[in-house]
Amino acid sequence: MLVESQERLPDPIFALTVKNIAGVEIYGTNTLFSRQPVPPVEIGERREVTFSFDLNLMPGHYFLSFGFTHFLGGDLVVIHRRYDAIKIEVHGVDGTFGIANLKAVIQSRALPAV
C-alpha cells in the first residue's frame, strides 16, 4: 500500500485483512499486533508498505483490505481504510478442500508384525 501523511505520526500502524466472498475474515495483521514497529512518518512523507506471506488459500474469490492508523492517547485513530481494495481469485491445483491449504506432507511406513 502507498500512504502519504498530512501530519507527523510517531507510531504509525499499517494493517491488512483478507476476507472471503462471504465476508469472513480469513487473516488479519498489523505492525502493532505482529510486533514489527515502523519508523515515524513525517509530514508530507510518502511511504510504501508491503505485506509478504504465503497465501495458502483454497480456490475462490478473496478481498484484501488495508488500514493506516495510530494511537492518540489511548484511542485508536483511523487515518484511512480501504475495504475490499483488491479482489483476488485463487485457482485449485489439486483436490484438497476447506478454507486453507496447509500443504500436508503425508508419509506412511510399515510397522513390524505383532
Rounded Rg: 20 Å
N- and C-termini, Cα separation: 60 Å
The SSE order reads EEEEEE
* Helix content bin: under 10%
Average pLDDT metric: 94
Q: Classify the beta-strand content into a percent band.
A: 35-45%
Number of helices: 0
Largest sheet: 4 strands, antiparallel
Low-confidence stretches at least 5 residues in length (pLDDT < 50)? Answer: none
Total strand count, please?
Answer: 6
Structural key phrases:
114 residues, mainly beta, 4-stranded antiparallel beta sheet, two-stranded antiparallel sheet, 6 strands, 0% helix, 43% strand
Protein architecture, described:
The structure is a single chain. The protein is mainly beta and 114 residues long. It contains no helices and six strands. It has strands at 2-4, 13-20, 25-30, 46-48, 60-72, 75-90. The chain has a four-stranded antiparallel beta sheet with strand order 3-2-5-6, with no helix packed on it.
Set out the fold topology.
Blueprint: E1 2-4, E2 13-20, E3 25-30, E4 46-48, E5 60-72, E6 75-90
Short description:
The chain has 114 residues and is mainly β. The chain has strands at residues 2-4, 13-20, 25-30, 46-48, 60-72, 75-90. It has no helices and six strands.
